[in-house]
Amino acid sequence: MRALWMTGVLSVLASGCSFTTAAGLDECETSADCGSDRVCTPEKLCLPLPVGCGTVYGSQSPDAIPIGGLFPVHSGTGVGAPIDESDEQALNAAVLAVEQINQRGIGGKQLALYFCDTGNDVGRAQRQAEWLVKEKKVPAMITAGSSQTLQVAQAVTIAASVVTLSYSATSPEVTDLPDKNGGQVGFVWRTSASDAIQGSVIANLLRNDARFGAPKKVGIFYVNDPYGQGLFNIVSERLDATPKVENEGDSYTRQGDVKAALDTLNQFDPDLTVLVGFASDVTTILTEAATRPNLQRSVHKWLFSDSVKDVAVLANGTASAQAQGFYGTAPAQGTGQAFRAFQSSFKDRFNKDPSAYAYTSNAYDAMYLLALGASYAQGTSGAVTGPKLAEGLTKVSSVQNSPVQLTSSSFTSLAAELAAGRSVNVDGASGALDFNNDTGEAPSPVELWQVAGNNFATIETIPAPRTTP
Q1: What is the pLDDT of residues 435-465, one digit of tens each?
Q2: Pick from 6, 28, 96, 358: most CB atoms within 10 A?
Q3: Can you say how many angstroms the Cα of residue 121 is from the centroid of all Cα atoms in its chain?
Q4: What CATH number is associated with residue 239?
Q5: What is the Cα–Cα distance from 129 to 109, expressed in whole angstroms?
Q6: pTM (two decimals)
Q7: Which residues are the signal sequence here (predicted)?
């Protein structure tokens, strides 16, 4: 279809007709000729931007270092789709990092973050990624979530030797992606820990922690996507190693009807259910569960996964009442100066506490890490390319160096070390960034949190298990 359409356009050209009158198109030399809502294609035609794209944070300079940002700020693609507040605040965290980095510069250059709202749609995310790679020539992009990250990496970025750095993809499948594209360094990284860690912690809590009442029957109610499937499999496998604990999984489609799956869960009659889902669905799940006799809070407990940690859940009176006092897990926020500096700056800039949302510190660190990788690339080769930026990411976890807190104040000296080709060792706002350079991920402790009124209280930080049996 595209070839036929282009043939028609070329025919219009040959006839001498104008684009505007004959085909509704305008000629262009650069995207600046097309206005703010269109882009100049390689065929020198102005076409609309991909849906969800168009906003640029940071520098507008043509020599800025371009970074793509695929954030599911809306939880759907339809008109009136609700805001996903957790990912909105993750975007804010990345924007804050861009602003701080650009105050200092990277070898005389600044960052431009090309933001695209994926609407939590993997097809849209792929189209946006293709545009960012082909039209904006990004050497790297930040992504959210397991489904979108896997799709973008496999369909677009790996083959293009573009770095994908996710702040919230936790599926174990990410670990095993063949992402080196014939080279020595992988192109897929994440500042979020694999759910192999969180799933093991959840199973250990249910088996050994008196706060969960030694449940004999555990339900696992999970969103049917790579994130939910991965966490279900890990928790279920770990619990299967405990003969006295029976477990059953029930899945639901995101943004779909949850009633039938809840009826099945109600029939199983669990003592406790691990709930793996996102805010908009969780609100509905908790509200509906209150009408099922075996899922009411007087006879049943919940244990929430990381994606439930979103104050939007607590904005619904019924859902909030059902969640009060129950626990959840999430990758832990950092505890050092890097997190305290981030938290203070975030509160000043956005008047919100980032610790009320999962993955804000991970998104902040992701942007800083890409800036450090860009500094290495620029300093060692004179150009910021995907392969050189990925190589730079292998230089931030040196065991030969003492850890340095990655803050706006330390960025310049860390960037200078990397630009000179030397390695550093950084602890970020999300904690120690001790990357395994072969897998592109770092182990992370897990936070145990509890619903308390209109917020979430951190109860303790649980170290990552040495093994995940």
Answers
A1: 999 999 998 889 999 999 999 999 999 988 7
A2: 358
A3: 14
A4: 3.40.50.2300
A5: 23
A6: 0.88
A7: 1-22
